[in-house]
Write a structure and sequence with these properties.
- The protein is of the alpha+beta class and 203 residues long.
- The protein has five helices and nine strands, in the order βββαβββαααβαββ.
- Helices cover 32% and strands 29% of the residues.
- The longest helix is centred in the middle third of the chain and has 16 residues.
- The termini are close together.
- Strands 3, 4, 5, 6, 7, 8 and 9 form a seven-stranded mixed sheet that branches.
- The chain is globular.
Length: 203
């Protein structure tokens, strides 16, 4: 539960929890856009590479958000507005498999294309390379073409974010973590409302 504190009255009042659907919020238009602009909503500091990524061979599948974490691992993010459906974990595993062959240069090119289009500007490779080097907080040089010169881990992480998770998701996820060491995170997104304002919390 989240509380609002009135410093003058010295009172703490609980905020009213609300379903995203009841608030008229949509998965792609709202939650996905917020995650792109402020990825810490997903529970950690991430560098968003792309959204609705679909550059997979022989398939029209699209993953919600592709990001990079501070350790240089790709993060495949699958978002669900309300309760995660029964195949959310399998869907994300499939996307992680698709992304396992991407290189550091590949994702920087994707980042450049995605953000240049989103911002309607033309950021050169050198600036993209510096952005990646700064985000990773490492002494990383640039290639002759201007990209950050680092090795991308070939085992993408999976981050599932939803309003609710049932046993049909948490049980196989825990099994994959404990038995196979897969890096999967389930992040619960909750909305709260007060006086016409909406507050978000991730856990």
């Amino acid at each position: 539960m989240i509380f609002s504190v009135d410093e003058e009255e010295k009172k703490a009042e609980p905020l009213n929890e609300a379903d995203f659907s009841d608030l008229g919020l949509l998965e792609r238009r709202d939650i996905q856009e917020w995650a792109i602009d402020e990825p810490r909503l997903l529970g950690e500091d991430l560098l968003v590479v792309s959204s609705e990524y679909s550059n997979f061979e022989d398939t029209q599948d699209r993953l919600d958000v592709l990001a990079l974490d501070k350790n240089g691992k790709l993060v495949v993010v699958e978002l669900k507005r309300d309760r995660a459906d029964r195949t959310t974990d399998l869907q994300a595993i499939k996307y992680a498999g698709y992304c396992a062959t991407l290189t550091a240069e590949d994702i920087q090119k994707e980042y450049r294309e995605f953000w240049n289009d989103r911002r309607d500007e033309e950021e050169p490779p050198e600036e993209v390379g510096e952005t990646f080097a700064e985000f990773l907080s490492k002494d990383i040089g640039l290639t002759e073409d201007g990209w950050a010169d680092f090795e991308l881990d070939d085992k993408p992480r999976i981050l599932l974010a939803a309003g609710e998770f049932g046993t049909e998701i948490t049980a196989p996820v825990m099994w994959l973590i404990e038995e196979y060491g897969m890096d999967i995170t389930c992040t619960r997104l909750r909305a709260y409302q007060r006086d016409g304002e909406v507050f978000l919390n991730s856990q």
